Each structure stands twice: as structure tokens, then as C-alpha cells.
Amino acid sequence: MTPSHQDNTPQKRPSQDRPHGPHEILQHGAEFDAEAAKRRHDEARAREVHTAATDALIARSRALRATLQELHRVPTGTPEGLPAFRQAFQEHCTAKQATVHPLLARHDKASVAVVRDREDGAQLLRRLDDVIAGKVAVEGLTLTTQLVLGEVDQYLLHEERDLVPWMQRGL
User: What is the 3-state secondary structure (H, E, C) of the chain?
Assistant: First the structure.
């Protein structure tokens, strides 16, 4: 190729990519150190956010599960505390959507789990609403109530057993 046919864009020589002299070496070292320190800070902050979200999730889940144990002890009918429990479960689901789901949704594999978790929580809230509103047969009210409470218990247990470790592995 003749010089007239060559591209006129300036070409970097390999020697231009490397620092020359002590001042440039120190400058590159300072830039590298600053970037590494920022990365460490960002990673530490992400861990703090994840830890706070998982700790709050576990605390809410355990409190709800303790309440569930009390509700399970009601021998027949619908427990009086069911509407208050339903409200606390709704608040738990809302808080999880605001804190935990965004952290998990950043990962492709977890986004499917987030969608499923939202759907399961919404379905359980609808089932609790049906029991509270008496939309189940009177003959099966106690059994249905206990069944729904058992499903909520399994849902909360799944959070602690599966969702939290998944978040912690994502750190």
C-alpha cells in the first residue's frame, strides 16, 4: 500500500500505551489506587445494602411465622387475628418488593424467581382475603384456613431458606 492510500487516522504506537518516566508511573499508580479504592468502597456499600435487606427480610419473616404459630392453635373457624396477620403479610410483601426484589432483579437468573415470588405472594393474599371474607364453604372453613396458613408458612420459610442465601451468594 502506498502512503496516499493509507488511512490518515493517527495510530497509537504500543509505547504510547505505557507510562514514561517516574512522574507518569506515579500518576498511573495513583489512578489505579483510586479506582481500586472506589471499587472496594462500592462493594462494601453493596454488601451493607444486601445485608440490611436480608436482615430485615429475615426479621419480618420470623415475626410473621411466630404469629402463624399462634393462629394455627385456634381449633376451629377463622382466627380473630387473621385480618391483622393479613395486613402484616401485605406490608411484608410490599417491603420485599421495594427492597429485595430490585436487588435480585439485577441478575438474569433471579428475575424469574422475583416474578414468581410476587405472583405467589399476591395469590396468598387473595386466599387470605377469601378466608377472611368467608368465601369458603362453612364446612371446610377450619381446614381451608389451616391450609392457607400452612401455605403462607411455607412461603415465608422459602424466603429464609432459598431467597436469602441466593441474595447472599450474589454479593
Answer: CCHHHCCCCCCCCHHHCCCCHHHHHHHHHHHHHHHHHHHHHHHHHHHHHHHHHHHHHHHHHHHHHHHHHHHHCCCCCCCCCHHHHHHHHHHHHHHHHHHHHHHHHCCHHHHHHHHHHHHHHHHHHHHHHHHHHCCCCHHHHHHHHHHHHHHHHHHHHHHHHHHHHHHHHCC
pLDDT per residue over 17-47, tens digit each?
565 666 677 777 777 777 877 787 767 776 7
pLDDT per position as a tens digit, 49-73: 777 888 888 999 999 999 999 988 8
| Predicted structure pTM score | 0.71
At 142, the amino acid letter reads T
Q: Which three cell numbers stand for residue 149?
A: 396458613
91-128: pLDDT as tens digits? 999 998 888 777 777 766 677 778 888 999 999 999 99
CA 155 to chain centre: 15
Indicate the residue type of 86: R
Cell numbers of 126, please? 387473595
